[in-house]
Specification:
The protein is mainly alpha-helical. Helix content is 60%, strand content 4%. The protein has a single domain, classed as Multidrug-efflux Transporter Regulator, Chain: A, Domain 2 (Orthogonal Bundle), CATH 1.10.1660. The chain has a two-stranded antiparallel ribbon with strand order 1-2.
């Protein structure tokens, strides 16, 4: 029934983190990295530990923008590089940055 609803009315107006990750072809755990890098904005003003939603129209537009995709990919790579360096050296994030 859920899929039938989507085919009749189109995609939902808001996407969850999981749905946004699928639309952007990235991992769910990469979405907070993109938000922290100010490359994605959740709708409204959700609390830090609250459920975040993203505008479907914005996610679809960003997924077609090669420049944005390059920035997002770089931000994700940078995040993991810093995290791995910190893990290897046992340093805190402030010491690496």
């Amino acid at each position: 029934m859920h899929l039938r609803f989507l085919s009749v009315f189109g995609p939902p107006a808001r996407l969850t983190v999981e749905q946004a990750a699928v639309a952007l072809n990235c991992q769910t755990h990469d979405i907070p990295t993109l938000v922290a890098a100010k490359l994605l904005r959740p709708l409204g003003n959700p609390p830090a530990s609250g459920v975040k939603f993203f505008a479907t129209i914005e996610i679809l537009e960003l997924s077609k923008n090669a420049c944005w995709l390059a920035k997002a990919t770089s931000a994700i790579h940078r995040h993991w590089r810093v995290k791995n360096e910190r893990k290897k050296s046992g340093q805190s994030p402030e010491e690496i940055s």
